[in-house]
Design brief:
Length: 205
Amino acid sequence: MNRRDVLKDSLLLTGLFAIAPKSSFAEKQNLQEEEKRKSIIRKIAQLGNKCLRIKTTNLSITDRLKNKRLDNLIDDMAITLDDTGGVGIASAQVYEDISLFLFVNNMDTSNVEVAINPKIINHSSEKNKGYEGCLSVPGIRALVPRYNWIEVEYIDKNNKKIKIKYSDFIARIFQHEFDHLNGIIYLDRVETNKDIISEEEYEKL
């Protein structure tokens, strides 16, 4: 059992330690698990880093099926996303030149989906502005125009080809993360600087 198997059984199960008996053993175990978690959480590239401005490379079939490093990267990104409380994270944000991102595809269940070699194959003619933030651009939010709905294709973590239509906020998340794979930051799509506000002011809305 590797470090990621342990984390899947413990760190990602919500409330596991909340109901554990308060003993010195439990406290020690909590500390050990937290240290493991910290060792896996990836550093997130910040605005200005050149890795956020490259077009990532698609994975080949061999990469998807045989590359254990890919499984490890997905696990690391899942832990990192969980730690941030965000709704999406792209490989470029953790310094990886791979066409892959994780995103929440159901706000009711907070289910996280893996998208490998994603494509947007169709979209609405209309766009709609909505506030976005980014793990690589902390402290601010901005109104960004996005397609109301998109039809997409990607490979999931089980190597299954997915073709699906997303709309509204999920479509916005997907477009935001898809941009990261093409070296685009959400601020690039802002129509006017007046649409950019601080996180503090956003919280007042």
